[in-house]
Design brief:
It is a single chain. With 118 residues, the protein is an all-beta fold. The strands form two sheets. Strands 2, 4, 5, 6, 9, 10 and 11 form a seven-stranded mixed sheet that branches. Strands 1-3-8-7 form a four-stranded antiparallel sheet, with no helix packed on it. It is globular. The relative contact order is 0.32. The model has no long low-confidence stretch (mean pLDDT 97).
Length: 118
């Protein structure tokens, strides 16, 4: 069965950096678009960044210039490099996968907590 597992979350000071990793147990990983989402307490889940099977990337406005999404198809992994962290980045971060041709992200990880202190 498809499984996504996030790691790398934790507590960081403002302006510090963290790198989140997601390991995907997916048979055809390279054919999936991957995304990072986050959900802060009391708020809706929001898109953070996406990377397509052809490595086209997109970012939500609040993280543009600070976060970078990448993937390593040989390792079935996707990463989110987070620089210049802000307290507003505090949230549970989720890794998600969408098969080429699918309309939505159908596979999700359990989430990893990121807490940024001021």
């Amino acid at each position: 069965q498809v499984q996504l597992l996030e790691s790398g979350g934790g507590l960081a000071q403002a302006e510090a950096s963290l790198r989140l990793s997601c390991t995907a147990s997916i048979r055809t990983f390279s054919m999936h678009a991957m995304g990072w989402f986050r959900q802060a307490p009391g708020k809706e889940r929001e898109l953070v960044a996406t990377i397509s099977s052809s490595r086209i990337t997109s970012y939500a406005d609040p993280v543009k210039g600070r976060f970078t999404i990448s993937r390593d198809n040989a390792k079935n992994m996707v990463y989110l490099q987070m620089n210049s962290l802000k307290p507003e980045d505090t949230a549970v971060y989720y890794c998600a996968a969408r098969m080429y041709g699918s309309r939505s992200y159908e596979y999700w990880g359990q989430g990893t907590q990121v807490t940024v202190s001021s």
